[in-house]
Recover the amino acids of this structure.
């Protein structure tokens, strides 16, 4: 599963801060997040809902709308910063270099346009093909995501497709301009369990075929553990742990990661019963001093309330932001 | 499709029938129309005879039966005042009303949709706030009063627009149309503006609400993630979706315009069927009122039908059932 | 009461300039309506107090104006400002009473339709549907033409057009409310229908009505004004703001604009205030927008 990582990353996010300035106060949805995605790599971005995962995805594409704003940091695509790039440059990036798959296929397609028109839009924007060639490209793409009678289906409207089929269409649209990076934001959460694995399989196959990279945003560790080469765990807008998938799943060092793993039914390693992380995510508008996780952490000590931990190297490939990280084999 | 048409036709007939019952009942309680047709110095015998001639001496049910029969036959009786077929009177005046309503609607659309789209796309801008305050004022204004103020300013004070009448008309397909002459346009402007304000404000608010609602939809963001410009996303993906609720109220708004035309026509002495209705109410000219109401009911029913059809053309999710 | 001042509603109210302006305008009219007769020297309906020598005086800031009549006088020497204060009483009274009557009738019919369903539901909603496809002003105009002028008749006509919107809303929320478990539980527990409606359904369907009721007062004031302007509303002896405009319209062409323009300004400010506040209420009470 693990592939060779090239020396220069395709995408490097460095110290990203994205804040939302609301009447009720500033929400620091993303507060100093850094990670890298190499060419052909799958990076899993994991955290509880409300943890700022989707905001990272939208920040990369420059789709943060008011009252949100990227307040600091860099997003380097091939070493070129996107945060400081203008709208015109971003439009070239969107869809062509980086595309996105949204959570809910029922709402990500325009109900009043045919599937063909919505696919064609991408090629109009990002290719010089003539109408006939564009149509053929759309048909080929639809077929490659497993939609039969593709030519007919181009004339159909989204409501004539099932949820799983719509997500296939969305994936087809995302892959159409052969982007180098796909950001998939909870791509299977809204789907039936049986459809979920089909869609994941399809995505894995698509990026492998086209040599693209992927950022898989999800709350579901089970999904990323199957799909990703690397995992970055977010909590309250911060990276709390990252590393290679296998090491992170088998021997996590951050108590939060441990908690997440213990709450997965399948991988809950032979514990007698499913565990749950006690408490809930703190109010992100005014975070406590020190470690954000301390109130829910079984290992918290006085120091955790004093000082915010920073990412430090742990065993193997793992980095974690914790004053008292778990050693391999140690239980929380 | 055929089943749908049949169903709608039955529905429409049912509505018209209910309207006919209500109109008939209400009319029976209106002041005694017999005094409209007999001379002031008529004797009791003369009055009784007139009553018999008008069929007013029979029971309500019989009267309704006759009423309905003549409605179905298209015979609405003669106006008590003009002593001409009521239907002819109304039809003569209908083009005047229709052209005023259409000009008002066109004005409302031309102003409301672009401003509504702007205000919906930029909800926090200063200009949007001004637009919204203006539209709220638009629904708070008494339309007839606006007409008066316009008359005072443009006709009495500055004398740049005429205050009443239709101006020169030209004959087209046997109809007298003001819009074919310059003088006609000159006359229609003030009444049409007066009439359009309320509808303009409502269409504007609906467009804005639709635009704001659609702005929150995922597919708008997805379209931007494809690389489309903000402008394209707004107009190619947003506008059509935003206009669906606007189309829904379009029929009602057209109905409102026809209704408020009665007042506007009265202020501007516009010789349309609305003014005729008001005059007929003053004179208890029952046949004319009945024709007006039945005709307007028919128009509304047809408008609603057309709106439903248009709806399916815009929204592929809706099918005619 | 302290709870109210700490509530989110009050917090947002303080931040919304339209809510403050709207409620200030409404408060101003409430004051004018209650205290009106004590604010002006002249009772415009007391013939003895009128002096024909004072007729057609322009507003006081214009040449020939008289400080006794700040907004001028009409053809009988009646103070326009005083007429407005008295006229607003009638307009506001009609708007409020017709709203309360519509709300009561509509809520009742909506509850019956939603709770009992069946034939009652079919009939009530059919009538509502047909009525909704016709403009209210036309229905009111038609009713008035049949029953003649008078405040009581205006109230009847307005109620006849106003109940529909409540009935539909209440029916809708009743239907969704009786699906809920607590109502089912109350039924199983053997509570009478009347008690279930009063204790469980009614309190939960009332919130959306607040917005409708607020805005409807403004709509009714406008409809009443239109009817009176056409001469089928209030009688000449009880002139509302609309009738004042009509009376002024007759002399407009002689350039005597103030007798009709100022009553119109009064209607506009009143309805504008109501709509401003209604808009704020809608945003506050509609949880979908939050």
């Amino acid at each position: 599963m693990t592939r060779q990582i090239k020396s220069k990353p395709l995408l490097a996010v460095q110290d990203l801060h994205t804040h939302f300035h609301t009447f009720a106060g500033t929400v620091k949805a993303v507060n100093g997040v850094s990670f890298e995605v190499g060419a052909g790599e799958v990076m899993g971005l994991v955290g509880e809902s409300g943890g700022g995962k989707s905001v990272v995805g939208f920040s990369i594409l420059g789709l943060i709308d008011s009252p949100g704003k990227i307040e600091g940091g860099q997003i380097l695509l091939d070493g070129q910063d996107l945060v400081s790039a203008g709208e015109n440059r971003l439009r070239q990036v969107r869809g062509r270099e980086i595309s996105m798959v949204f959570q809910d296929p029922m709402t990500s397609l325009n109900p009043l346009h045919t599937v063909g028109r919505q696919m064609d839009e991408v090629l109009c924007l990002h290719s010089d093909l003539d109408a006939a060639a564009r149509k053929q490209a759309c048909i080929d793409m639809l077929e490659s995501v497993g939609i039969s009678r593709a030519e007919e289906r181009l004339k159909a409207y989204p409501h004539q497709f099932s949820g799983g089929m719509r997500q296939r269409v969305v994936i087809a649209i995302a892959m159409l301009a052969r982007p180098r990076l796909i950001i998939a934001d909870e791509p299977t959460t809204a789907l039936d369990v049986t459809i979920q694995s089909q869609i994941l399989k399809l995505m894995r196959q698509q990026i492998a075929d086209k040599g693209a990279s992927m950022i898989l945003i999800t709350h579901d560790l089970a999904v990323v553990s199957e799909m990703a080469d690397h995992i970055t765990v977010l909590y309250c807008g911060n990276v709390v742990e990252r590393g290679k998938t296998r090491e992170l799943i088998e021997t996590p060092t951050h108590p939060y990661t441990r908690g997440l793993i213990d709450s997965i039914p399948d991988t809950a390693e032979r514990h007698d019963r499913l565990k749950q992380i006690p408490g809930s995510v703190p109010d992100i508008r005014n975070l406590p001093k020190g470690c954000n996780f301390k109130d829910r952490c079984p290992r918290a000590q006085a120091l955790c309330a004093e000082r915010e931990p920073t990412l430090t190297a742990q065993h193997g490939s793992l980095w974690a932001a914790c004053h008292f990280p778990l050693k391999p084999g140690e239980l929380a | 499709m055929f089943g749908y048409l049949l169903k709608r036709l039955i529905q429409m007939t049912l509505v018209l029938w209910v309207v006919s019952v209500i109109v008939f009942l209400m009319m029976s309680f209106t002041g005694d129309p017999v005094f409209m047709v007999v001379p002031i110095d008529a004797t009791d015998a003369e009055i009784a005879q007139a009553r018999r001639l008008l069929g007013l001496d029979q029971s309500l049910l019989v009267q309704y039966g006759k009423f309905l029969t003549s409605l179905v036959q298209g015979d609405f009786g003669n106006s008590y005042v003009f002593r001409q077929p009521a239907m002819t009177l109304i039809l003569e005046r209908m083009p005047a009303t229709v052209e005023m309503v259409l000009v008002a609607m066109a004005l409302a659309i031309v102003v409301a949709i672009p401003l509504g789209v702007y205000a919906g796309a930029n909800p926090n801008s200063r200009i949007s706030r001004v637009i919204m305050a203006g539209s709220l004022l638009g629904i708070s204004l008494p339309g007839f009063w606006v007409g008066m103020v316009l008359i005072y300013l443009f006709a009495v004070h500055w004398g740049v627009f005429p205050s009443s009448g239709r101006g020169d008309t030209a004959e087209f397909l046997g109809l007298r149309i003001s819009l074919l002459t310059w003088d006609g346009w000159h006359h229609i402007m003030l009444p049409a503006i007066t009439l359009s304000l309320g509808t303009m404000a409502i269409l504007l608010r609906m467009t804005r609400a639709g635009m704001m609602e659609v702005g929150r939809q995922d597919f708008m963001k997805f379209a931007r993630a494809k690389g489309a410009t903000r402008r394209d996303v707004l107009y190619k993906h947003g506008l059509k979706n935003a206009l669906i609720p606007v189309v829904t109220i379009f029929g009602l708004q057209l109905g409102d315009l026809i209704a408020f035309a009665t007042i506007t026509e009265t202020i501007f002495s516009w010789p349309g069927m609305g003014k005729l209705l008001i005059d007929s109410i003053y004179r208890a000219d029952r046949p004319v009122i009945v024709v007006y109401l039945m005709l307007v009911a028919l128009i509304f029913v047809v408008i609603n039908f057309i709106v439903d059809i248009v709806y399916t053309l815009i929204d592929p999710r809706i099918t005619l059932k | 009461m302290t709870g109210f001042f700490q509530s989110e509603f009050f917090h947002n109210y303080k931040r919304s300039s339209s809510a403050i302006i709207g409620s200030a305008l409404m408060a101003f009219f409430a004051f004018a309506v209650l205290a009106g007769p004590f604010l002006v020297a002249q009772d415009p309906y007391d013939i003895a107090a009128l002096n024909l020598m004072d007729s057609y005086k322009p507003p006081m800031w214009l040449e020939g104006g008289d400080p006794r009549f700040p907004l001028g006088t009409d053809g009988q020497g009646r103070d326009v400002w005083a007429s407005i204060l008295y006229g607003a009483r009638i307009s506001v009274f009609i708007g409020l009473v017709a709203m309360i009557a519509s709300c009561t009738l509509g809520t009742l019919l909506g509850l019956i339709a939603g709770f009992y369903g069946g034939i009652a539901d079919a009939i009530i909603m059919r009538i509502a549907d047909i009525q909704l496809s016709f403009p209210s002003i036309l229905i009111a105009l038609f009713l008035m033409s049949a029953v003649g002028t008078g405040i009581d008749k205006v109230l009847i006509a307005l109620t006849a057009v106003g109940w529909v919107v409540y009935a539909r809303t209440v029916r809708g929320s009743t239907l969704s409310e009786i699906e809920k478990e607590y109502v089912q539980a109350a039924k199983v527990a053997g509570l009478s229908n009347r008690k279930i409606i009063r204790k469980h359904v009614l309190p939960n369907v009332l919130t959306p009505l607040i917005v409708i009721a607020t805005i409807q007062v403004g709509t009714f004031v406008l409809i009443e004004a239109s009817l009176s302007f056409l001469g089928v509303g209030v009688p000449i002896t009880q002139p509302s703001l609309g009738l004042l405009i009509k009376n002024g319209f007759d002399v407009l062409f002689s350039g005597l604009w103030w007798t009709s323009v100022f009553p119109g300004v009064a209607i506009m400010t009143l309805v504008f205030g109501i709509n401003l506040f209604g808009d704020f209420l809608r945003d506050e009470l509609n949880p979908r927008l939050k």
Notes: Residues 18-33+78-289 of chain C form a domain with the MetI-like fold fold (CATH 1.10.3720.10). The mean pLDDT of chain C is 87. The CA atoms of residues 52 and 77 of chain C lie 5 Å apart. Chain C touches chain A at residues 15 (CB under 8 Å).
